[in-house]
């Protein structure tokens, strides 16, 4: 059943759905106060249950938001960290940690740790230089260590191209003191050919760039005791496993590719093409660890990503039409393409799926347009959502399928299909939790901000519950923003808050819309009356990222 509300908001509900409580628009400057669309002011958020405060970072600001009344959130304080860009924030106990990409000295990215035990401005307790482009961090469950993904992206420094190795920083915090360890990938250089044969992509090989330099950590998931870290290497289509206490990378696992045979894919925002001779690389952004019925799993949001170095005029991506024009596809594959111009627009990898003559025998697009579940032991695939995400968007909210919220002068429906030939919905973030005696999965898609809810049964089979879109329609993205009629555009971060930690004792989802510059509070609602719910026996399930020590 589709429910159209005011200002173009749409919720298509099954049983479990999102009900809006509030949306707050954040400024990119407080002195003077300035707001603007697409300024990346709401990149990531973290919740402190004890104080019922939400901390949101974006650009160079930390926003402290009181959500004790989630119907009326209020910014109480802000902290500016000049000279760089804040990329992540995580709270543990009464400590708040942020990662900071240093724009002045790019090699010297930092982590800042603040004391939030008292109200008022954040009190800086620790400052640690961790390396080039720290992109994401996690606290271990005891709140004593930070595990930081240091991406090591290529940068231009004093007119020279510098490509640092990606690494993982492990920072032990003790009061105002710290101990820093680093885990790098240099030991894998001598084994590069082996790991490439196992599906770990080595994308950029020019200018003497090594395998270790090409491996770029994107996201970290920690297991139950915080001793093992799983690290997404997005462009490399791989996950690394690390011993946290030793700060040592143990293994790399290639994630393989997904065949679109017997599945449908949208390449123009409308009709779905079926049974194409096409594969795609999973390339997850967000990954989450969880336990279910005593077994360990990794949940992945398969966004996809080209590696691009604009100032070097390098990308590993190319359109299929360009490959055809350059005669870079073998005869058998060319015949199977049937000269469909829609598939010609699709961006694919220029380095994957080559035969012995260097011609493409298989085409690999970026991102699986799905979420997946993998065994934590060896990262083997046990479930993928196939084409379900695009099918549900096409069925319930077709006017935004493949739309791009950064086409600011276009309407959401006018921009539909503009991203379909690239990475489609760009499934970017996932979160999991328990509510109404169900295990729930929330799936956030960047283009342009659609959230789907699923529930799991005891066999980890997923059931579609509902779909949510708050981006608006009928006016340009910019006009919608100026009239406060859009939200959740590019949801880089979603956070489930269980009822026992919630500010109003009901399960919630917090959505940070990076492009719209918004933070939205939603209540997770079960439309089915309690007396009609059929509860299965509660499975044994554990989500370490939902364990909150700030309530102690």
Automatic annotation (TrEMBL):
Superkingdom to which the source organism belongs: Eukaryota
InterPro entries (UniProt xref): Choice_anch_I, Mesenchyme-surface_protein, WD40/YVTN_repeat-like_dom_sf
Pfam families reported for this sequence: choice_anch_I (PF22494)
Region: Disordered, residue numbers: 404-427
Residue ranges occupied by any Choice-of-anchor I domain in the UniProt entry: 108-524
Protein name, UniProt field: DgyrCDS11479
Annotated organism of origin: Dimorphilus gyrociliatus
Lineage start: Eukaryota, Metazoa, Spiralia, Lophotrochozoa, Annelida
């Amino acid at each position: 059943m589709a429910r159209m509300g005011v200002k173009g908001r749409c919720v298509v509900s099954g049983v479990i759905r999102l009900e809006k409580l509030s949306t707050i628009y954040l400024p990119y400057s407080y002195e003077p106060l300035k707001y603007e669309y697409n300024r990346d002011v709401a990149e990531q958020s973290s919740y402190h249950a004890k104080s019922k405060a939400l901390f949101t970072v974006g650009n160079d600001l930390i926003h402290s938001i009181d959500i004790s009344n989630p119907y009326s959130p209020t910014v109480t304080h802000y902290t500016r960290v000049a000279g760089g860009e804040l990329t992540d924030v995580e709270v543990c106990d009464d400590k708040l940690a942020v990662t900071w990409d240093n724009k002045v000295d790019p090699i010297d990215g930092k982590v800042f740790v603040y004391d939030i035990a008292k109200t008022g401005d954040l009190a800086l307790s620790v400052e640690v230089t961790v390396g080039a482009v720290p992109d994401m961090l996690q606290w271990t469950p005891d709140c004593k260590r930070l595990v930081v993904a240091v991406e090591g992206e290529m940068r231009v420094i004093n007119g020279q191209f510098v490509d640092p190795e990606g690494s993982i920083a492990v920072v032990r915090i003790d009061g105002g003191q710290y101990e820093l360890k680093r885990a790098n990938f240099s030991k894998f250089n001598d084994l590069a050919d082996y790991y490439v044969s196992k599906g770990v992509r080595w994308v950029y090989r020019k200018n003497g760039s090594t395998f270790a330099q090409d491996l770029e950590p994107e996201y970290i998931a920690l297991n139950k005791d915080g001793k093992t870290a799983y690290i997404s290497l997005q462009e490399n289509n791989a996950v690394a496993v690390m011993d946290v206490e030793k700060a040592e990378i143990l293994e790399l696992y290639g994630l393989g590719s997904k065949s679109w045979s017997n599945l449908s894919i949208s390449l123009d925002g409308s009709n779905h093409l079926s049974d194409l001779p096409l594969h795609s690389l999973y390339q997850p952004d967000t990954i989450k660890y969880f336990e279910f019925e005593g077994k360990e799993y990794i949940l992945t949001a398969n966004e996809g990503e080209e590696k691009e170095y604009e100032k070097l005029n390098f990308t590993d991506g190319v359109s299929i039409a360009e490959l055809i024009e350059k005669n870079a596809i073998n005869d058998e594959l060319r015949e199977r393409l049937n000269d469909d111009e829609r598939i010609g627009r699709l961006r694919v990898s220029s380095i994957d799926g080559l035969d012995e003559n260097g011609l493409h025998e298989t085409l690999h697009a970026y991102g699986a347009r799905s979420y997946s579940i993998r065994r934590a032991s060896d990262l083997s695939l046990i479930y993928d959502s196939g084409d379900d995400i695009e099918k549900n968007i096409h069925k319930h909210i077709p006017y935004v399928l493949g739309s791009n919220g950064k086409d600011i002068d276009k309407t959401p429906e006018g921009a539909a299909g503009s991203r379909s030939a690239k990475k489609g919905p760009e499934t970017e973030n996932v979160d999991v939790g328990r509510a109404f005696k169900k295990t729930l999965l929330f799936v956030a898609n960047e283009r342009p901000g659609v959230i789907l809810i699923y529930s799991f049964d005891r066999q980890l089979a997923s059931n579609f519950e509902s779909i949510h879109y708050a981006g608006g329609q009928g006016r340009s993205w910019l006009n919608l923003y100026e009239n406060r009629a859009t939200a959740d555009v590019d949801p880089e971060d979603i956070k489930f808050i269980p009822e026992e930690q919630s500010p109003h004792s009901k399960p919630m989802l917090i959505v940070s819309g990076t492009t719209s510059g918004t933070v939205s509070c939603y209540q997770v609602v079960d439309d089915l009356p309690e007396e009609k719910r059929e509860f299965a026996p509660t499975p044994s399930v554990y989500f370490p990222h939902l364990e909150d020590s700030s309530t102690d």
